[in-house]
Give the backbone structure.
Amino acid sequence: MARQLYDYWFVQFDFPDGNGRPYKSSGGRMVFNESLGINIPLDWDVKRLNYYIESNNTGDWGYDEPSENRVPVGCVRGADIVKLNDVPLRYVKKSNTHKLLTPYDIVIEVSGGSPVQATGRCAYITPGVIERNYGRMTCSNFCHAFRLKNIEDSAYFYFLWKTLYDNNIMFNFEGKTSGIKNFMTETFLANKWYFAPKDIQKLFFDRVSNIYSIIDSNVSEINLLVKQRDELLPLLMNGQVSVMPTAVNCDLSHC
């Protein structure tokens, strides 16, 4: 739903105008932008992608074991970017806690990929993602974390990045070191793109945040049900409990 909303507002340019009508379909004025070579809505900005980024933090894989000067964190790897659930538990030095993720950071995989999968996959770190992954998170050494100057720009920036990735643009920004593909982050961020006015990006952020709140709530409920299943299934298998009706003295039914 969030992706469709992005396409509708920022690809077809049918975001709500001042009267709540779809902008382009209702005759909203479009102007040709020479630097991009396309028509964009009047009064939209064209800036380099790095203009919106406050910081670009490298990852920290940390250690296997706890110690006095380490804190437990969930660590996002490239393999976790899609599901963002049950990520590995790691221990990072307290001196590196500045690398911890905050809500609405965007994690980018900068090394890895394959001949058919580009580097540059992205993950949107919502409050629910952090909450269900040990309450503290970082990303691995093969990832970077973008923190935007304004979190209300994060939803648009994330879906812009994801759209470019899904259209295989990132294959054009890869280099190789020792046989491993690396995403040329700074080169990519130097490119220009169009950005909607702040009020439209805020409205998009609010709507996307609501959708992700539902997703995060569903994932938490699924995790709880999976935990209950894993606890009850062995008892069912060895006959300690049954699913017979209450008339037959069923333990689970009685509970």
About this structure: The first strand starts at residue 30 and ends at 33. The helical segments are 2-10, 127-132, 154-166, 185-189, 198-237, 251-254.
